[in-house]
Amino acid sequence: MMAARAQLRYYRSSPRKVRLVADLVRGKSIEPALTSLQLSPKYAARDVEKLVRSALANLEQSQPGVDVDKVFISRITVDGGPSMKRGRPASKVVQMRRMVKRMCHVTVELDVRER
């Protein structure tokens, strides 16, 4: 069967924080994964949940009549994106401190278990 995927690019959260959420659902079936994301207190869980739902919709579009109970998250990756560099006033000697606001790209791939 062909896998369906969805991407969330330039997400304004650090990859390290989003990987914590991705590790919660990697390899799980759809229903338990969505439940874990809904109950997670992490900020990124809300957007990862939307991404998983989008990938599920993509799968249903490409394979009409697919059994949702057999669908699972085969791959979820969080890669670093570009960083926004910002300055923050500091002491008189230093003038500015550099702040790096990180972004990431999240990719979810769903597949159907053959059982």
Structural features, described:
There is one protein chain. The protein is of the alpha+beta class and 115 residues long. The protein has one domain (4-78, 106-112): Alpha-Beta Complex (Ribosomal Protein L22, Chain A). It contains three helices and three strands; from the N terminus they run βαααββ. The protein has a three-stranded antiparallel sheet with strand order 1-3-2. Strand 2 (71-89) and strand 3 (96-112) form a beta hairpin. Helix 2 packs antiparallel against helix 3. The model has no long low-confidence stretch (mean pLDDT 94).
Biggest sheet overview = 3 strands, antiparallel
Mean pLDDT: 94
Low-confidence stretches: none
State Rg.
18 Å
Question: What is the CA–CA distance across the termini?
Answer: 13 Å
Highest-level CATH class:
Alpha Beta
Along the chain, the helix and strand elements come as EHHHEE
Relative strand content: 35-45%
The largest sheet has its strands arranged as: 1-3-2
List the main descriptive attributes of the protein structure presented here.
115 residues, alpha+beta, Ribosomal Protein L22, Chain A, 3-stranded antiparallel sheet, 3 helices, 36% helix
